[in-house]
Amino acid sequence: MILPDNETRIDLLNNEAIAATIIALLQAQRAHPVTVGVHGDWGAGKSSILEMIEAGLGGSGDVLCLKFNSWRFQGFEDAKIALIEGVVTGLLEKRPVLTRATEGVKDLFARIDWLKVAKHAGGLAFTAFTGMPTPDQISAITNGLQHILADPAKLATKENISAAIEGVKSVIKPAEAKNVPEEIAEFRKAFDKLLKDAGIKQLVVLVDDLDRCLPDTAIETLEAIRLFVFTSGTAFVVAADEAMIEYSVRKHFPELPETTGPRDYARNYLEKLIQIPFRIPALGETETRIYVTLLLIGAELGEADEQYAKLIAVARERLKRPWESAPLDFAAIKAALGDVKPAVQNAVTLSDQIGPILASGAKGNPRQIKRFLNTLLLRQQTATARGYGNDVKLPVLARLMLAERFIPRLFDQIAFAAAAHPKGYCDDLVALEAATGEKATADTKVGKAKESGDVAESALVTEWLASPQIKAWSQVPPPLANVDLRPYLFVTKDRKDYFGAASALGHLAGVVEKLLGPKLAVQSLDADLKLLKEPEAAQVFEALRSRIMGEDSFMTAPLGIDGLSVLVKTHPVLQTNLLDFLGALPVERCGAWPVSGWQGVVTDQAAATRLTNLIEEWATSGKKSPLANAAIAARKMKSRSA
Prior knowledge:
This protein is mainly α. Among the domains are: 16-98 and 198-279, Rossmann fold, CATH 3.40.50; 283-344, no CATH class; 516-641. The chain is 60% helix and 5% strand. Strands 2-3-4-1-5 form a five-stranded parallel beta sheet, with helices on both faces. The N and C termini lie far apart (72 Å). This is NTPase KAP. Residues 16-381 form the KAP NTPase domain. InterPro entries: KAP_P-loop, NTPase_KAP_P-loop, P-loop_NTPase, QatA. It comes from Bradyrhizobium arachidis.
C-alpha cells in the first residue's frame, strides 16, 4: 500500500472551497484581464487546486482553460517564448475551428518567430560586430524558422543575421512594427483577434510548478505573463511558493535598489504582477488527523469505493468548522462505511497515534505527511518481506520514525544506545517516559531502573527534558521502554547503520552518545569518564572523532567537540590524538573555534608546542577562511605579549 504523491481532483482537505472561490472570481472578471496567485509551501496542494479549477471551468462554451507547466520547458526552450507559444498552440488544439493556415494564425506565429530571432540576435550583437558567431549560436537563432537555411554554419556573418530578421519581418504585413515594444503591441492585437475568431470570451491559463524552476526561468515566465496582462478576457492563475519567487527575483536582479532593500523589492515585484493572492492555509491538528485517516483508509478501500466517498463527505462537513470539530472517530467511520474491516480499524488506530505530533512535525504540509506515511508503510512491508515482519509493530515503528524525521539527534541517541544493549533497550527512555507521564507500567519502570542504575540523574535525560519537542514526543503511545528496538533499527538501515558502531563499541556506545551532548551536559560526565581504562578511552575518542568528521561541517564547533575536550582533560594521554584531529581539519572550510579553548586540556609541553606550530601553519596557509584569520590574530597577540 503506497500513497500516490501527485496532484489529484479528489479533495481530502476541503481545498475545493479555494478552487470554487477562484472560479467565481474568474467568472466575475470575464471582461477584464486578471492574475491570481495560489501560494503555499512545497507540497501544500497548489497543483491539486489547479486541477480542481480546470475541472470546474470545463472545456466547452466561450471559456477556455489551458495548463502550462514551466518546469517541463526548462532547459529546452526560452521560457518567455515557451509560454507565449504554448498559449497560442494550446488555443489552436482546443479550438479546431482555427487552423494554422488562416492569415491571422500565420501572422501571430510570424510575430512569435520575430521575437525569437530578435532575442537571440540581441544577445549576439557584440559577437556579430567583433567577429564570427559560432554555429551553435546561429543554430539557436534559426531554430524552428523553416524559411531560413538549414545549415547554420552558412549563416555565420553579420549580414546573414540581419537577413534572418528581415526574413521573418517579410512575413509580417508591410508598414507594421519593427522594434520590440511595437511588435509586442501588435502581437497583443493579433492575439485579441484570434480569441474573437475562436468565440472565446475568457481564456484562463493555469501556470504550475513555477517555484521548481531556476531563477531565470521563473522570471522569464512571469515576464511573459505580463505580455498578456492587458489582453481583455485573459486570466492567469499562477501556483507558486512566494518565498521561492522572491528568491528568484533577488537572484535575477542582484543589483536591487538600496532604498527599499532586496526583500521588499522582490515582494513588490510579485505583488505588482499578482493582483489577487490566495494562500493555502497549513493544516491544524484536527485537519491533519482527518487527512491521515482518509489517506490510510483510501489506500485500503480504493478511491473509487462508494463507501469511501461517503466518508469523504462526512469529513468535509467536519472540515468546515475544524476549530469546533473532532477528528474522524470510529463511530463516524462505522456510520459511513458500515462493517469496518480490520485494515480500516488499524488505519484509524494509527491515525490516532501519530496524528497529533505529525501535525506539528510536518508543519501542516500534505506532501510531508504523505512522504512520512509512504516511508512508514514501505519499511513495514520490507520487514515482512525479509521475514521479521512480526517483530515490527506499525505503531512502534511510526513513533520511532517521528523522532527520526523531526528530531534526528534524539533518534540517533536512542538508536546507538539500543543497538549496544544486549536486549535492544534504551535505558534512558525509562526516565524520560516516567518524567513526562508516559503510561508504562510500574513494574517496567522499576525493572529497567534496577538494570540501568540511577538513570534519573542521566545528563542525556536532562538534555531531553529541556526540549518541549522531545517531551511531546515522549508522550506519544505506545511506550518504548520495554521494547526491543533492534528490529526497528535494522529496518531503518537505509539511513544509517547503527549496528556496526555499536558492535565495535559495545557498552561504550552510550558513552559516545553522551559526549555528543551540549557543553553543560558533557561537563558533568567527568566522574564517569575517569572509570574508563586507557584503551577504552582511546576507543571512545576514535568513535567520537569519526562522528565529528563524518558530519563534514566545521564553520562552527561541531557537536562532540566539548565531549572531546572533557575526555582528553580526563585522560591526558589522548593529547596526541587531539592534535592529530586538529591537524586534519580542512583550513579553507573551518571556522575560528580550533584556535582557542584548549587551556587545561593541552597541558603536555610537547603537545603545547605542537599546537603552537599548528596555529602558525594555519596563519601562513595563505587560505582565506575564518580559521586562518583567527590564527593570524592569535599569532599577533602572542607577539605583542612577548
